[in-house]
Amino acid sequence: WGPFQRRIFFVLCLTCVPCGYNILSVIFLLASPPHHCDIPPHSNLSQEWIQASIPAEPVAGQPERSSCSRYELDLVRNLSAMGASPNWLQNQSAPGSRPEGLLSNLRREGCRDGWSYSTEYFQSTVVTEFDLVCSEQWKQPLTSLVYFLGGLSGCFISGLISDRFGRKPVLFGSIAILSIFSSAVAFAPSWPVFTVLFFMLGLGQISCYIVVFVLGSEILVGSSRILFSSLGQPFVYSFSMMLLPGTAYLVRSWRHLSLIMAVPGLACIPLWWLVPESPRWLLSRGRLQEAELLLRSAALENRVEAPPVIFLPPKAEKAEAHQAESVSFLDLVKTAKIRHITLKLWLIWWFSTSVSYFGLSFSMSTLYGNLFLNYFLLTAVELPAYFASWLAARSSPRRLSFIGFCLLGALALLFIQGTMKSYPTLTMSLVLLGKFGVLAGSGVVYTYTGELSPTVIRNTAMSSCAMFSRVGSSVSPYLLELAEFNKLLPWITLGVLSLLAVLLCIFLPETFQQPLPDTIEQMPVTQWFTCPWASKTALKEEEIITKEQTPSMEIICTTCL
């Protein structure tokens, strides 16, 4: 833990600020404020008639002004010209009509003159500027879907590029994408153009975080690696997330907010000269001289003497032999051992780190209270969650930690169905507790996935998991549609998915206090639960496979000789 490690720790934490600052942009740029049909000024109606022109509709048992219809404006003008009063018409009933009054029996029409939007929280959003409401409301979740599909594509592409060409170019390429397209989005003239640019913005969002995580995991070792991956990077990421609700509170225009989102990425440009390439990746690609030069410069910075020979001949020969080898996405499912682990990790990331995380964020709009304060609290609870995951990563097995945190989050979300209608404060507390459990479990699963994946394909494995998490996050905007049937359905769905992630984690191998695998052959063997009365044949076969595995490169070379 010398000056080199401290510099790497601090600089890598700073490089994840742009992706954290942009992650909630989908919430604030696409916010849909309360709205109703606009009554144009040339209609020559009194303020009393303008208010009465919007019919009331029951929403959750309470009457609210209709968002997508109004009484026919010509009829309202005629009634106003005749000198009728809205209050009088509301109290009169025609024979055979509904008892609510003559006014509620008037014919209705759509919002032909556009909409009037509340400016309580937002001066303008993408929804208000391009009128993505009523018959165009389907474009709201579709835009969020496109953003997350951009993240999915970015994870897939960046993982392959990073394992082939290096971690550092992909990291700063992702940051550049965030800054360029955050600025470009602010000048979008229409919804289709905005959607295309928003897709490009999503390309760099999660891939930036994944590459920072992998780079820190491969440069740092021991307790400093755990400190970085479980506490340092998540803390800075969460803190940068907390800045966006405050910025959105001060800047109520979505175009100005988009421009401000480009600033953190531009501020990271000078960090290019402070971030080194991963020495583990250089060794896995057979670039021994560059890896040795990097380690000797680190030793010089730490004022310690490097050994005369850093890479022993057997390891160097093996690294050079693997120089021409390249890995691909298909290597994650090539053998049975890595396939079992990969499939479980994909589903865990899908259920736990994505659908639950973003489903909670989107479902927050259905709760009471100030929108900005709710989202600030939802992001602030991530700080103690990541601190808890760091404590667990230091001293607890990975599987036990993940299962405990996810069970806590799932139970809290399932208990919401008993408090949502009558206890809003208790409901908000349960939501925050659920977010705590989900986020603490996500912090553990990041470390867990990095420890399960070998160096030669670690970034591809992490990116593939993040890609599946983006599949889940793409579905999360549509969880709100379940509230049309029952307001409790989104919360019940999130709790059940967290329980499924717990079930899958039971069958993963433990990595606590184990060295990082460098090759696919060094990956831990998948563990299965067996009944006490079951045959021991499977256990004997697993023991034979374990004995046949070669634990290190040196043993391979010695045996061949």
Automatic annotation (TrEMBL):
<feature type="transmembrane region" description="Helical">
    <location>
        <begin position="145"/>
        <end position="162"/>
    </location>
</feature>
<keyword id="KW-1133">Transmembrane helix</keyword>
<dbReference type="GO" id="GO:0016020">
    <property type="term" value="C:membrane"/>
</dbReference>
<dbReference type="Pfam" id="PF00083">
    <property type="entry name" value="Sugar_tr"/>
</dbReference>
<feature type="transmembrane region" description="Helical">
    <location>
        <begin position="341"/>
        <end position="360"/>
    </location>
</feature>
<feature type="transmembrane region" description="Helical">
    <location>
        <begin position="372"/>
        <end position="393"/>
    </location>
</feature>
<feature type="transmembrane region" description="Helical">
    <location>
        <begin position="7"/>
        <end position="31"/>
    </location>
</feature>
<dbReference type="InterPro" id="IPR005828">
    <property type="entry name" value="MFS_sugar_transport-like"/>
</dbReference>
<dbReference type="InterPro" id="IPR005829">
    <property type="entry name" value="Sugar_transporter_CS"/>
</dbReference>
<dbReference type="GO" id="GO:0022857">
    <property type="term" value="F:transmembrane transporter activity"/>
</dbReference>
<feature type="transmembrane region" description="Helical">
    <location>
        <begin position="227"/>
        <end position="251"/>
    </location>
</feature>
<feature type="transmembrane region" description="Helical">
    <location>
        <begin position="491"/>
        <end position="508"/>
    </location>
</feature>
<feature type="transmembrane region" description="Helical">
    <location>
        <begin position="400"/>
        <end position="420"/>
    </location>
</feature>
<feature type="transmembrane region" description="Helical">
    <location>
        <begin position="257"/>
        <end position="275"/>
    </location>
</feature>
<dbReference type="InterPro" id="IPR020846">
    <property type="entry name" value="MFS_dom"/>
</dbReference>
<keyword id="KW-0812">Transmembrane</keyword>
<protein>
    <recommendedName>
        <fullName>Major facilitator superfamily (MFS) profile domain-containing protein</fullName>
    </recommendedName>
</protein>
<feature type="transmembrane region" description="Helical">
    <location>
        <begin position="426"/>
        <end position="448"/>
    </location>
</feature>
<feature type="domain" description="Major facilitator superfamily (MFS) profile">
    <location>
        <begin position="76"/>
        <end position="513"/>
    </location>
</feature>
<dbReference type="InterPro" id="IPR036259">
    <property type="entry name" value="MFS_trans_sf"/>
</dbReference>
<feature type="transmembrane region" description="Helical">
    <location>
        <begin position="194"/>
        <end position="215"/>
    </location>
</feature>
<keyword id="KW-0472">Membrane</keyword>
<feature type="transmembrane region" description="Helical">
    <location>
        <begin position="169"/>
        <end position="188"/>
    </location>
</feature>
